[in-house]
Amino acid sequence: MSRLALPLAASLLALAGCSHEPAPQTPAPAPTPGEPSAAVMPLEIVETPPVETTLDHPDVQNAAEVWLAMIQGAKRSIDIEHFYISNAPGGKLEPVLAAIEEAAARGVRVRLLADIKFYLRYPESVDRLASHGVLVRKVDLRARDGVQHAKYMVVDDGDAYVGSQNMDYRSLEHIQEIGARVRVPEVVAAYARVFAQDWWIAGGQVAAESPETKPLTIPARFTFGAEEVRILPTASPKDLLPAGVPWELPELLARIDGAERTLDVQVLTYRTKMRNGTPWPDLDDALRRAAKRGVRVRLLVADWSKREASLEGLRELSRVPGISIRFLVIPQSSSGFIPFARVAHAKYMVVDGKSAWIGTSNWEGDYFTVSRNVGLFIDGKAIAGQLARIFEDGFGGTYAEVLDPDRKYEPPRIE
């Protein structure tokens, strides 16, 4: 079924256009008669609802549809950086892969970056694309005990997608996910710069391919209806940031510390220790500070967090007055158990109902300090409000389960 982009899109007669700092830009063109307003939306929230659940929002586009539209509309270039690619016959990823092959066949330059560790686990689809003219490189962060965990795409240097969806058939059908499509030039340029640096590094640091270093004009601003929206692209880790792209962690901490009334967070997993056992209290301390000053803090995590490594920190956090934690439990498919699926994998935050974060990082230290990830910060009530509604549907819905800090949990079957 065809979907609209944002609930308030129907109430807008035309988009007021984009004005980015430091100087105003030419407004975006109004849609032609009969053309969906989504065609000129600078920013759209995108989701994946697991099939056979009630988590779908009819006014929010699905990632499978958005990816396909972006790829089929590409005229010059498609740059894809994903953790891995895993396909299945008849799944929703197959049309996406076919569209990538078709784009390469019609002369679009298609480049793909994948994590080398997970390429070794899932080589088939990457090799398939390479055999159809896609330029492929692998990012190797094993020496630093990290991975290329980002999930984003840049098309024609003017259209980008970032979100929690892996390029996996399960992420388009059997996993709850959140992302965003962005058509704001400054923001797209930042993601393109991350890709350029990673492509350069994965290719053995060829000097001719070194990324640009001219200033990026971010954060960017655009007018959405009567509201000015501010958006900031970010990346991790700190020591692998291209020039001009800010580190994600300080931005997250600043927004948590700036919360005045409410703070709602959904992530796959939450841990207060690095994977090597070193304490990592950065986000935990920030949430505690927020609760102490009277902010209502709610955290929604996947049932994969019923494993002890995550439960340790979650139990202690749930005992803090003002902090509520729930699991989001996705029921198994009627077709039977699916490995690494039927889980809530979204990663986003809403602050005071007026600002938000969407990212690819779980809330564990390694994602911000050793692995490649990207994120997007949005200051604007309309978009934050839409994410807030999605959060409420999860936190207050039938799939939510209150965390009991004194209960012994049985970890769910994952593989």
From TrEMBL:
Residues spanning the signal sequence: 1-16
Organism: Polyangium fumosum
PROSITE patterns: PLD, PROKAR_LIPOPROTEIN
GO terms (BP aspect): phosphorus metabolic process
Protein name per the record: Phospholipase
Entry GO MF terms: catalytic activity
Domain of life where this protein originates: Bacteria
PLD phosphodiesterase domain ranges (all copies): 144-171, 340-367
The entry's keywords: Signal
Entry keyword annotation includes Glycoprotein: no
